[in-house]
Amino acid sequence: AIRSVHARRIWDSRGRPTVEAEVTLSDGTVGRGLAPAGASRGSREAVDRRDGGTRFGGLDVQGAIASVRDEIGPALAGRDPFDQAGIDAALIALDGTPTKARLGGNATVAVSLAVLQAAAASRGLPLWRHLAGEDAVTIPLPEIQIFGGGAHAGRRTDIQDFMVMAPRARSFAEALEVTAEVYRAAGAVMAGRGLLQGVADEGGWWPAFTSNEEALDALVAAIERAGFTPGEEAAISLDIAASEFGRGGRYRLGLEGRELDRDGMAEYLMGWCARYPILSIEDPFAEDDAEGLARFTAAVGDHIQVIGDDFLVTNAALVAAAAQAGTVNAVLVKVNQAGTVSEARAACEAGRRAGFGTIVSARSGETEDVAIAHLAVGWSAGQLKVGSFARSERMAKWNEVLRIEEALGARARFAGLTALPFRRS
Ligand code: PGA
Ligand code: ZN
User: Fold this and answer.
1) Known active-site residue 397
2) Residues annotated as binding site?
3) CA proximity to 90, closest of 100, 399, 320, 329
4) Does 202 qualify as catalytic in the annotation?
5) Which of 314, 351, 404, 394 is nearest to 127 (CA)?
6) Among 13, 14, 160, residue to substitute to test ligand 1 (most atoms within 8 Å of Cβ)
7) What is the pairing mode between strands 278-282 and 246-247?
8) Contacts by 248-251 with C-beta closer than 8 Å and gap 24+?
9) H helices of 48-153, where?
């Protein structure tokens, strides 16, 4: 049974306060959960409880810690840590709001993850194995950022993530090898053009470009410079994060100084899909633009993965509705967007039932916690997105998957192309 729940303030990868929860079981086992934090958030996702005021920019989390100490801890004491669904239902009921705004999504997610870790530790199992049971698992295809833009780089580009995927790699280890070469080559391309200015929040090169398309050209140049054929060993994946610059069917491209309507935005993106080897696009239209999404997915969804992040906010009901409406063909799964492990798992399963691609994802504000690497494997999500190929809050997660792949040995099955909601031969 759960003996106690403790929370403390720790610091995330942006040097901002966040919540760490520790659950101690009656057998002495301790499980730890750490809350990440987004910067480009969907309007319907779970809300962090922040103190406001001036200290640490108003971002302190003493209120969220008090939620754990005064309410969550007493409510969970004595409960069965193996009943994750029951624990998470109790957290949802105790909060009582649709967005966990009262207790704080940062409090609930830290505790929910801590319970999960304690249960796994108490069985002496790695988290991924605790989740998967005896089932065979799939090692995820990584989606890795090369240039970071949008809200993660002072809006230096409108587009948020310029990433690569290596779906033809034979293993996760090989996919990282491909990415390492492309990341290095991209740095050299930037240096050669006099554009090297350090890295953005998730470790991707800071995008000192004068147009969004220049970033795409540089990415293609990096793939070639690394010795690969664009679209073969390495393909392009984008997170447009269009809710950051679009609303009411209008899209304001700050970098290029122009505004597009829905049709103009579709033309803009379709032009890229025709000219660049793009395999996946996330949030190509704003979260309020289901019509733009549906038209786009109807046009390219047979060969491009269209991911809902801000649009679906890791919500199983929204995933099911999206499957009905054909607005997207893949779902990003962020545990803190839902606020509990069980809700995130339900969103992932709703995606799987719909034949969607399912991508477990980190946030732009991260910690050293590697739990999501285990979730991606344990849930056989098929894909994993944790940012770039630099900064150890990112590398810790990639490296953890390497360990799991090695532990599985000959039983490791790398998702590769099969992770996508369509098959490319
Ligand atoms: P966030 O962005 O963590 O800053 O919200 C990540 C994403 O949009 O995928
Ligand atoms: Zn996103």
Assistant:
1) no
2) 160, 239, 282, 309, 334, 363-364, 385
3) 100
4) yes
5) 404
6) 160
7) unpaired
8) 248/288, 249/289, 249/291, 249/292, 251/286
9) 62-66, 73-76, 84-95, 105-123, 127-132
What is the position in ligand 1's atom list of the atom closest to the CA of 42? 5
pLDDT in tens, 341-378: 999 999 999 999 999 999 999 999 999 999 999 999 99
Amino acid at 99: T
DSSP secondary structure string for all residues of 355-415: T-EEEEE--SB--S--HHHHHHHHTT-EEEEEEESSSHHHHHHHHHHHHHHHHHGGG-EE-
Helix (H) / strand (E) element for 187: namely helix 172-192
The stretches in the chain having pLDDT less than 50 are 424-425
**ipTM exceeding cut-off 0.95 for this assembly:** yes
Q: Which residues contact 195 (CB under 8 A, 6 or more apart)?
A: 208, 209
Check residue 425 and give its pLDDT: 42
CA distance 29 to 25: 5
Distance CA 358, CA 268 (A): 26
The pTM is what? 0.98
Residues with CB under 6 A from ligand 1: 38-41, 151, 160, 239, 241, 309, 361, 363-364
Which atom of ligand 1 has the smallest separation from the CA of 39? 4
Both tokens of 302, joined, read 């047979």
Choosing from 20, 22, 181, 202, the catalytic residue is: 202
Spatial separation of the C-alpha atoms in residues 298 and 295, rounded to whole Å = 5
Give the pLDDT confidence score for residue 231 in this predicted structure. Answer: 97
409-413 contacts at long range (C-beta below 8 A, 24 or more positions apart): 411/136, 412/139, 412/171, 412/172, 413/136, 413/137, 413/138, 413/139
Q: What is the reported pLDDT for 422?
A: 86
Name the active-site residue from 334, 366, 393, 397: 334
Please tell me the predicted confidence (pLDDT) of residue 423.
Answer: 61
